[in-house]
Amino acid sequence: MKLIVEKHRELDQKLKKYSNGIVGLQDNWDHQDSKGYNEKTWQRVVKLLEKTLNTLWDEKLEIPIPLILPASNGSFDINWETEQFELLVNIPSDIKELVNVYGEKIGFPEDEIEVRINYNLVYLVLIEWLKTIS
């Protein structure tokens, strides 16, 4: 139980760190017409990560906290790169757009995943894929 509490605390700290300086940037923030990063998109990232990681941690799976990076057109990339697997999830700024997911278990091409899926279903796909490769 203590480990899970520590993981939750670490996740909260990293989410705050990742959001600083990115969330709230307005359109044209770089003077090259780049789209800004809004709070609503960020909250979808946070919700997805919390739901996914909390479920996996509760099941005693050791899934690390991924990097979260700003991507093009106001979207965010959730990026895991471990010795076991790589997984990239792009959360678009427009809720109507599909989420892009690409992952592979290192050395096992048959465990590759590549889908475009509705945001409301993506956590189920992530949980099942991460369980399968762990």
Describe the structure.
The mean pLDDT is 93. This protein has one domain (2-133). Helices cover 40% and strands 25% of the residues. It has helices at residues 2-19, 39-58, 119-133, and strands at 67-70, 76-81, 85-91, 99-105, 108-117. It is α+β, with helices and mostly antiparallel strands. Strands 1-2-3-4-5 form a five-stranded antiparallel beta sheet.
Q: How would you briefly describe this protein structure?
A:
With 134 residues, the chain is an alpha+beta fold.
How far is the N terminus from the C terminus? 20 Å
User: What helical percentage do the residues reach?
Assistant: 25-40%
How do the strands line up in the largest sheet? 1-2-3-4-5
- The SS-based structural class is alpha+beta
**Gyration radius over CA:** 15 Å
User: From N to C, what is the helix and strand string?
Assistant: HHEEEEEH
Number of structural domains: 1
Largest sheet: 5 strands, antiparallel
Q: How many E-type strands? A: 5
Cα shape: globular
Which stretches of 5+ consecutive residues score pLDDT under 50?
none
Number of helices: 3
Task: Outline the fold blueprint.
Layout (H helix, E strand, L loop, with lengths): L1 H18 L19 H20 L8 E4 L5 E6 L3 E7 L7 E7 L2 E10 L1 H15 L1
Antiparallel strand pairs: 1-2, 2-3, 3-4, 4-5
Helix pairs in contact: 1-2, 2-3
What characteristics describe this protein?
134 residues; alpha+beta; 5 strands
